[in-house]
Amino acid sequence: MFAVTKLRTEYKENPIGIDVAIPRVSWQLLSNKRDCMQYAYQIQVSAEAQFNQIVWDSGKVESEQSIHVEMLGFLIEAKTRYYYHVKAWDEAGLESDWSQSAFFETGLMGVEQWKAEWISAPSTNFPQDTESCPQLRNFFEVNGSIAKARIYVTALGLYELHLNNKRVSDHYFTPGWTSYGKRLQYQTYDVTEFLHEGTNALGALLGNGWYKGYLGWKNDKEIYGSNTAFLLELHICYEDGSEEHILSDQSWQFSESAILMSDIYMGESYDARLERDWTNPSQDGWFQVEVIEQSKDIIIAQENVPVTKVEQLKPLTLLTTPQGDRVLDMGQNMVGWMKFTVQGVSGHKVELQHAEVLDNEGNFYRENIRGAKQLVSYTLKGGEVETYEPHFSFQGFRYVLLTGFSENVQLEDFIGIVLHSNMERTGEFECSDPLVNQLHHNILWGQKGNFLDVPTDCPQRDERLGWTGDAQMFVRTSSYLMNTAPFFTKWLRDLKADQTPEGGIPFYIPNLMESFETSHSSAAWGDAATICPWTIYEMYGDKRLLAEQYESMKQWVSYIHEQGSNPYLWNTGFHFGDWLGLDSKPGSYVGATDRDYIATAFYAYSVSLTLKASEALEQSDDMNYYRTLHGKIVEAFQNEYVTPTGRLSVPTQTAQVLALRFDLVEGVAKERAVQKLIELLAEAGDHLTTGFVGTPYLNPVLSENGNNELAYRLLFQKDYPSWLYQITKGATTIWEHWDGIKEDGSFWSADMNSFNHYAYGAIGEWLYSYVAGIRPDESNPGFKVVHINPQLGQGLDYVKASHETLYGNVNSQWKRSKDGEIEVHVTIPANTRGIVVLPEAKLQGLLESGTPIEEVADLHDMEVIKSGVRISLGSGSYQFTYRP
Predict the structure, then answer these.
(1) Beta bridge mates, 138
(2) Measured between alpha carbons, how far is 203 from 290 in angstroms, rounded to an integer?
(3) What three-state secondary structure class fits 468?
C-alpha cells in the first residue's frame, strides 16, 4: 500500500474564504513498508470537482517536500473554489493513485473593494450607555436558479448571523479579537442551501464583545469603540451566469432585541417576552439603520480556526450548600456556558452564577472572580418549555448557583457547552500513574479554557487577556497537544501590529492601552516576539510565518539593545521578574531572582533565536551580526553574574535554570550551576521554588544535565508546592498559584487566584519531549526528522504518547517488566526519518521485534553513545527490547 491522504490547505481541511496569494498545501503518505520516502509528487488543480477542467498542474516534481508546498505560478482568482488532488512516487519508483480530492475557496483577496456600507443602530435609539443588543434585518428577492451564494461579513463588536431563520454557521464570537485599529477579520460562509426563490430574510444580532464591552481589571469599557456596527455582502451567482449582491446599507432595519445585556465579563440578561419575529415584514417596532464612516482598509480574511461548541458536559450533582444554595457541580472546570430548559409563568426570572470552586465549608465562592459578574439571567416568556443559552458571553466555571428555579429542577435540564478555538487535537499521553494522567488532563483543559480566539491568562475573572509571558511559556506544550499554528499565526500578526515604533512588545496582545508608557517590554513577556515564532517553526516547519515575523524579532532585539548604557546587559526598565516565585517574601508576587539577571538572560536567548531564524531564512549578513552580538551578551553576562571561581552570583533555583537552559555558562561554571541547583532543591526538600519564569525550564534542565531522577522526584511530589498537590485538592485545570487552595482549605488570595491558568502547565512539554522523548529537529523542522529519546525514571512502569505531526502520527511507548526488561515501541511517519536513543541500552542483547539488533537490515545506523544506543532509521513501526 502506498497512498496520499489528509490533504490540507494552510493547515485547514477544505477552507472557505482564504486570502493567500500563493496557497500552500500539505499531505500525508501512507505506506505498509518501512523506510518510505517520497521521491516526487504531482498536484493538479481543477475548477470543478470532476477534474475535467485542469487549471494548474505542477507536473512531476522530484522533491521530498509534502508540507507547505507552494502552488508557484498558479494565478488564483478571488471568490473561486479550486479542487485539487495529489499523487506521489516513493524512492523505489512506486506510484500512488490520485488522492481523494480536496478544495480551498478564496475570499475577496483584497482585489474587490467592499461595496457594502457600515451600518449601526442610531445613537439616538441606542445611546452609548445602553446595554441592549440591537438586531438588524433585511429582506431581498431571489429570482432564478442559484449556482452558489456566499456571505462575506464582519462587525465592530460581535455578530450572530441568521438567514431565513437558520444560523448560518457554527462559529461563535465572530469576527474574533484582533488589534481592531489595524486588523479586523471577516468571515466567509457558503449559504447556497439557505436560499429559496422569492422573499428571503437576513438577520443579525450584535454584541459588545471585546470591542465595546468591559475589558481589563480597571472597569474600563469602549476601549476600541463606542458603537457596534455591521458590514455584509451576500453574493448570489445564478445558473445563467448573472450575479447579484445584497449589501448592508441604508435599506436595513433595526430594533431592540431580547438581549438586555451581554458582556464578556458580566454575563448575559435575556427577556424572552421581548423576542421579535424579525422575519415578519409587517411587524412594528423596526426603524432605519444609520450608515457610519469606518475604514474598510484594515479588513482581512479569517486567519485563526473558529471558536465552536467543541463538546458537552453533563452536571455530576446538584448540591445544597451549608448556606442553603442549590449549586450544580459540572465535575470539571470548564469554559463556555450553560444551556438549560425551564418552564413557568411569564415574567418569572431565573439566574445562574458561575464560579470555579467552593470554599472550605462547601459554600459557593466567587471572590476570586473579582469584578466579572459571570451572571446569566433569563426572564420567561411563559407557557411551554423554554430552552436558552447565551450569545455573546462566556464563563469560566465548575460550579453554577441556581436562583429562581423550581424545587423539582432536574440535572437533565442542564448541559455544559464547552467552547474554544476548534484546534485539531494532536497529542495523547498516558502512563502508569493516575495522578500524572490527571495532570495531563488538567494541562489539556487549561488549554481548552484559555485558547478562545486569543491565548488568555485566565477565562473567568475581569482579565482574560492575551498575556505574552503566559503564551511564550506554554506555546510548545500547547503545540504538542493541539495544532496551534493557525491560532498563533493570527496572534503573532497582532503582536507585530501592536509592537511599538521602537520595537517594544505590550504586556498583552491585542493591546488595550492607547498610550504605551510603561505598559510594555518586560523580559520573558516581550520575548514572546522571538520564542513563539521560532517554536511554531520548529513544530510545524512554517518558514513563511517565520519570515513574516522575522522583522518583529529583530525589532524586539534592537529595542533591548538600545536600553541602558551597556548594550550587552539589560538592566533598565520594568520587569515582572520570576512572577509568583516562592523564594521571596510571603505574599509577594515577585520571586527573589534578580530582575536584571533575568532580563539579560532572556536578552541572550532572544538573540540566539533571532540568529537561528536568520540561518533558517539564509540572511547571511544578519547571521554574522547576531552571532557576534550573542557572544558579547554572553560575555557580559558572565562578567556581571559569574564569579572568578565559576559561581553564579544569584543563588536561586530560577537563576541556575536560566543560565543552564540558555547556555550562558560552560565548563566549571556550568558544573557549579548544576550542583547549586541540586543543593537548592535539596534545601527545599526536593521541591521547586520557581515562578512563571523558571518553572517551564526546570525539569528539562534537570533531565538534560544528568539529573533525570531528580526531575521525576519533583513530578511526583504531592505536598505543596508541586504539580500533584493541586490534584490532591481536586484541581481539574492548572492553578495560577501553587497554593491557590492552602493545605488548611483556605485560599491564597481573593485578588489574583485563578484556578484555570495554564502557565505552570508548561510541564507538559517535559512529559512529551523527555518522559516520552518525542522531539522535533530544529535543522529539519516540523518533525521531518523525528527524535525519540525517552528518559525513563523511577515511579513509572509504562508511558504511551503520540503526537500527530503534519507528516503523520509519531508514537513513543515504553514499559518495564518486573524482571527489569525494557520494551520500547516507536512509530515514525512516512516521508520522515527517525533518530531513536535507547537510554542505558547496549548493542549486545538489544532486540528489534525479537531479532538481534545487528541482524536487522533496515536500520540506517547504530552507535554506542554515553547515555545508551543511538539508532538512525526510516519510517515505520519498531519494537526494541533490552536490559539496562
Answers:
(1) 202
(2) 16
(3) helix
Residue type, 178: T
Phi, psi of 158 (to 5 degrees): -120, 155
What is the DSSP track for 280-322?
-TT-SS-EE-EE-----TTEEE--SPPEEEEEEE---EEEE-T
Q: For residue 176, which phi and psi values (nearest 5 degrees)?
A: 95, 170
3-state SS string over 857-868?
CCEEEEEEECCE
**Model pTM score:** 0.97
Q: What is the three-class DSSP state of 542? A: coil
pLDDT at position 749 is: 86
CA distance 855 to 627: 45
Rounded Cα–Cα distance for residues 116 and 246 (Å): 8
CA 799 to chain centre: 25
Integer Cα distance of 163 and 158 in angstroms:
17
Phi-psi region of 618 (alpha: psi -120 to 50; beta: other; left: phi over 0): left
For residue 351, how far is the Cα from the chain centroid? 32
Residues of the chain with pLDDT under 70: 127-129, 513-518
pLDDT of residue 518: 61
Cα(403)–Cα(756) distance, rounded to whole angstroms? 25
175: cis peptide before it, omega within 30°? yes
Cα–Cα distance between 650 and 666 in angstroms, integer?
Answer: 16
Q: What confidence tens digit (pLDDT) does each residue in 257-279 have?
A: 999 999 999 999 999 999 988 89
Q: How far apart are CA 475 and CA 195, in angstroms?
A: 42
Tell me, what DSSP letter sits at residue 684? T
The predicted-structure confidence for 600-659, as pLDDT tens digits, reads as follows 999 999 999 999 999 999 999 999 999 999 999 999 999 999 999 999 999 999 999 999
CA 851, CA 348: separation in Å to the nearest integer?
Answer: 75
pLDDT of residue 284: 86
Rounded CA gap, 155 and 526, in Å? 30
Active site residues: 463, 736
What's the full length of the chain, in residues? Answer: 884
CB contact burial 611-632 (16+ within 10 A = b; e otherwise): bbbbbbeebeebbebbeebbee
CA 186 to chain centre: 20
- Sign of dihedral through CA atoms 365, 370, 373, 374? negative
Alpha-carbon distance 180 to 300, whole Å? 11
Nearest to 150 by CA among 99, 109, 94, 205: 109
Rounded to a whole number of angstroms, the CA Rg of the chain reads 28
CA atoms within 13 A on the CB side of 338: 34
Burial 158-170, CB ≥16 within 10 A → b, else e: bbbbbbeeeebbe
